[in-house]
């Protein structure tokens, strides 16, 4: 697939209110579908926010009720859905919580990604994931590189996925005020240095701990901003040329000129 229409649902997340957040997300996703979106991206832990006080209640175990609802929407609307939820994982009577990224393609689970870098307070509640990998979309022959919030500060993650053949980089986030300039700089840098389109989907609004600035971006493989949000709830949409990265890598051969034996 050469051209694909991507959408970021920049929403204010109601703290610990899964029902309200799901209703809002599906309402906004309906609008994105009506505008022709092929890929719909939701912010980090969009269904609950970082609901630490009730984490045992809001966290979900396999088969993940929220993800099943999203899969139903994805199947009904023939679209791809990407985001994350709070996961509860029980193994040999040991309970661990993860920030679980998911990618659903036309109603089927294409893959998961557990955030490997919990940020500050998150470390008290979330275990880190242990693998960085791309998620293949077989129906449209694309590879998704999914990272979560703080991980936009780690260029190694995006580079590893680019080297593994990622066609689009997706960053889902709850990136707070006052770091909007840092967010936009990092989002553009990850696209430019990897010569890959980048959908950087942040939340807006506030929760009991922080305020958020939104500022979601859709950037092409050359680093041009195709669509940018302010601090309002919005449905950001742009068309991405997934073959552009090949043209850019031919004219500016960063990947061919790498010296991995030295760094």
UniProtKB/TrEMBL annotation:
Entry annotated with the keyword NAD: no
Keywords: Acyltransferase, Lipoprotein, Transferase
CN hydrolase domain boundaries: 4-242
TM region positions: none
GO molecular function, one term: acyltransferase activity
CDD domains per record: nitrilase_5
Protein's name in the database: Nitrilase/cyanide hydratase and apolipoprotein N-acyltransferase
The species this protein was found in: Methanosalsum zhilinae (strain DSM 4017 / NBRC 107636 / OCM 62 / WeN5) (Methanohalophilus zhilinae)
